[in-house]
Amino acid sequence: MQDPSKSHSIMEHQILKEKTLDGSYQAFLKLFPKTHYFQAAYEILAWLQDDLLTQSERINAIFILLEFTKHSENVFLQTVADLVDISPHPWEKLLLQEWLKNKEIGKTAVSNILKLTGEAKEIDHIKRSRTVRPVVNGGSSDKINICLGKYDPEFLRPIPDFIEISPVETNWMSPLTVPEVLWDNESQKERAASEEVRELLKSALTNKLSNDQVAIVISALKTDSKLAFKSGISHKNLGDLVEKNSSIAVDIILAIMNSSKVQDYFGELVNIPMSLNSLEVVNKLALMMELPAEFLHLFISNCMNSCKNLKDRYTQTRFIRLLCVFINSLLKNKVLNNDELYIEIEHFCTEFNSIKEASLVYRSIKSMPNE
């Protein structure tokens, strides 16, 4: 039986690091007794098959196995031929060819083998060679056959019979219902158009689309509202869409109006920073549908607080004008109907009465009939 300590040290041993081919083979012969040659060679074959060696170590390993076949009835020749035939390194097949015709190949340096060039010929004749034997006799005195790995003989096995199900066993239950086949009736042209719209919607989060591109997206959303759910746009990135393409944001919200997710979108509109685009989106939505009163109240209140907190006088005046124009539009279209909100707007306009637009909103509220 092979010494475990030696078996473990083959990989680290100098035999695969020798500079010449014959040097590696002689080191192999000195390291193991004859009775252990086969096991050691088989381990080297396993490292080759598992690709655990460097290029130079693979060359030495292949040469050791080839030389070993001279004394072991060609047991490894067919396996090595299979191995080098599928190897991505052409010099391995060339090494096999040189070994077959050149008796002095062992004196060649490993570095020169790696430089071999030329046409690698077919080696099927080696694989089909009758001299190859799948089983070899070991070196022990009792002539026990050594059968390892792929060299195991195949045994004929009878086909097992079916076992009858006993009354205590649970029968295999097959479902009786057959699922209905759903055909994809969408044509290739429609599928390509749908893919184009999804790509445009994805791009709309980061880039300002052209008028033609916006028209394509809006037309597609009106035709198929489900595109709003397949576009990758959600309430989390709604703010980016509002700033880059506010008109598309309006149609996205209109497309999901009957979904429970619309509340998330309203919540995001309330929280995004006040801007001309956010005011435009809410204004368009208010004119096209009935927005929740709580949403409008909270949105306008947040915008008024944002204006009050601005430090830069020029920016503050500009935002107050934008907000007042927005509120005046809602008042003219009778969208607002909340006494508490009216009081907040009056206080806001009084605080900034020096701005013309704020004074107009204040007069509009005062001129409304007292219901």
TrEMBL record:
**Biological process GO annotation list?**
regulatory ncRNA-mediated gene silencing
Kindly list the GO CC terms recorded for this protein: CCR4-NOT complex; cytoplasm; nucleus
Q: What's the protein here called?
A: CCR4-NOT transcription complex subunit 11
- Organism expressing this protein natively: Stentor coeruleus
Keyword annotations for this protein, in alphabetical order, are: Cytoplasm, Nucleus, RNA-mediated gene silencing, Transcription, Transcription regulation
Its principal location? cytoplasm
Q: Which family does it belong to?
A: Belongs to the CNOT11 family.
Localization, per the record, is:
Cytoplasm; Nucleus
Q: Domain of life of the organism in this record?
A: Eukaryota
Lineage runs: Eukaryota, Sar, Alveolata, Ciliophora, Postciliodesmatophora
Q: Name one Pfam family in it.
A: CNOT11
- What PANTHER family has UniProt attached to this entry? CCR4-NOT TRANSCRIPTION COMPLEX SUBUNIT 11
Where would one find the signal peptide in this protein? Answer: none
